[in-house]
Amino acid sequence: MKNIFNPTDMTEILNRIDRLSPLSQPLWGKMNVTQMLAHNSAFQDIASGITNLPRGWLGMVVGRFARPVLYNEKPVPRNMSSIPEILIADPRDFETEREQLKEKIISFQQNGPEKCTSHPHPFFGKLTPEQWGKGIYKHLDHHLKQFGV
Length: 149
Hints:
Elements: H1 7-18, H2 33-48, H3 57-66, H4 94-111, H5 129-146
Helix pairs in contact: 1-4, 1-5, 2-4, 2-5
Protein name: DUF1569 domain-containing protein
InterPro entries: DinB/YfiT-like (IPR034660), DUF1569 (IPR011463)
Pfam families: DUF1569
């Protein structure tokens, strides 16, 4: 399983992000490409501990059972629901969002597993740094496939 802490996997993701353009269209979902970049950036903030969102009741009840979807080999289902706080609906600047996301990915990878948040994921709950690394890769991969890269 690929992991954002692996430099080769990180480079692959960064190269795919560079292949996006403001004209990239989604194959599914409601976000435009810029909103998707901002959404992934917000997800990075959760994994880095910059944002600590409270756990919702649904996550407390079923999150631990659903947790493997974040780091197993199966693709993330299309149109899977997201954490409401990181759904981006407002207009953003493409280049700004792309560069911010790339910077956050590089920083997260360089900081290594020991700097990963210890705060629980708002839905899945407590994750190990390895699970975060796999989950971040898988989340980014899902959204980059959404835009054909």
